[in-house]
């Protein structure tokens, strides 16, 4: 049986997105959830994710670009400043601690894993500060980290995949130096067009996935009166993902391909796994 980690990103970005993700967890259609703890839903009394703690891995979706009532820099600015050097170390470190504090206040313990909203954890300087900060904060039980090394053979968005692969070129090596474990391979990137067939992409990713691969997804519901909210800008693709992942077709495909959705502890991580499958 092939073991796959299926992770839904952006929990707490909005209430409808979060509710859709929880429904999939309750159906057994996800094995990890990545959380934006600055979102107001994170502290909401209706947040049911802590009740599902024993079913899935729950991690921090580290954020430097999504505004939650306080100004944030654009992704382009963060990329530019991380490459050229002026991105504030103090800002990165303080933001990470604040988001981790919020995570622990709700979950009662450290995250199982850390990744980055818009993959910002891969960027030079950001990744160095993140790794150093996590190594100091979690000396005895370190979270696993998301490696983003997408195959250029699977899915669309080849240009985006290539850029992400280049940005993350040294991430795995640096993370290993600090003693962090990483998922061995990754998929889930595609072009977010309204006409995109998400099911077709998932069928391709699952058929070509290696054992232990992490597949990223972004399911969620939409409140129609919030259709122009920036947090809902990808609403059509989110609802399409939610519908397909909840479908009988997805369940049948997992059975056909003999795939189990598992947590990170259920996969065997070899010492060289983080350096393999980079763009195969």
Structure notes:
It is a single chain. The chain is α/β, with parallel strands linked by helices and 280 residues long. It has one domain (2-275): Glycoside hydrolase/deacetylase (TIM Barrel, Alpha-Beta Barrel). The chain contains 9 helices and 8 strands. Strands 1, 2, 3, 4, 5, 6, 7 and 8 form an 8-stranded parallel sheet that branches. Strand 1 (2-11), helix 1 (15-27) and strand 2 (32-35) form a beta-alpha-beta unit. Residues 274-280 have low confidence and may be disordered.
Question: Layout of helices and strands, plus pairs?
Answer:
Layout: E1 2-11, H1 15-27, E2 32-35, E3 57-62, H2 75-84, H3 89-107, E4 113-116, H4 126-137, E5 144-145, H5 158-167, H6 171-177, E6 186-187, H7 198-208, E7 214-217, H8 235-245, H9 248-256, E8 259-261
Parallel strand pairs: 1-2, 1-7, 1-8, 2-3, 3-4, 4-5, 6-7
Helix pairs in contact: 3-4
